[in-house]
Amino acid sequence: MATGIETKIIKWPQPTLDEATHTYTLGRRVIPGFSQIAKAMGLINFDGVPKDKLINKMHIGSAVHLATEFLDKGILVSDSVNPSVLPYLEAYKQFKHDYGYEPKLIESPMMNKDYDYACKVDRVGMGGGGLTLVEIKTSPIKPWHIVQVIAQRLCLRPTVRMIILELKKDGTYTSRFVESVNRIGSKVYPLNRLNNGWLNAANTYHFGKEIS
């Protein structure tokens, strides 16, 4: 049961996540995840990326997420960290130091009951100017990453600041606040448009399932 600051953050009952199958359930009901909906609606597309490169990036991302999770939970054994992961871990430590970031929720499954989807929130904590949601990445920031953190924010009770944190293999990081207007490359993405676009995508996904 959520206590303390968690009760101020979590809006709906938390689903259970089967990490092996990446399946969210609440009781016996399966809830579609962000990635499932985003891929079905064409928001995420890895076409053109060699399979071996994609698998390698997934392995690195998973290892970095696990190392940072253990760090924040105070159970990390430094000697157990693969040398290839260490630069990313150091980048995360530097981010926490620079922002005074203190995670309160760590790798937490969440759901939005109104739009019937689930996601895993990497971090919610204090720092960066207030209560801040952080999405950890080990690859360059892409437009759909903004949609991802918006979907996560809509699973939480308060209005929180949003950061996409890119950890790099050279031990540095790039942090990007999701603002009212977001520019990536030559494109501009107003927050309201992205917010409405995601909710429309979730609705369309469910509508398609209902009538098929």
Span between termini: 37 Å
Mean pLDDT: 91
Largest sheet: 5 strands, mixed
Under CATH, the topology can be stated as Lambda Exonuclease, Chain A
Return the CATH class: Alpha Beta
What is the structural class?
alpha+beta
Order of helices and strands: HEEEHHHEEEHEEEEH
Instruction: Indicate the CATH architecture.
Output: Alpha-Beta Complex
Uncertain spans, ≥5 residues at pLDDT below 50? none
How would you describe the shape?
A: globular
Number of helices: 6
Q: For this entry, what is the oligomeric state of its chains?
A: single chain
Commentary on this structure:
The chain is α+β, with helices and mostly antiparallel strands. The protein has one domain: Lambda Exonuclease, Chain A, CATH 3.90.320. It is 38% helix and 27% strand. It is built from 6 helices and 10 strands. The chain has helices spanning 6-9, 34-40, 51-73, 86-99, 143-153, 191-211; strands at 16-18, 23-26, 29-31, 102-112, 117-126, 131-137, 161-167, 173-177, 181-184, 187-190. A 5-stranded mixed beta sheet has the order 4-5-6-7-8, sandwiched between helices. Helix 5 packs across helix 6 (191-211).
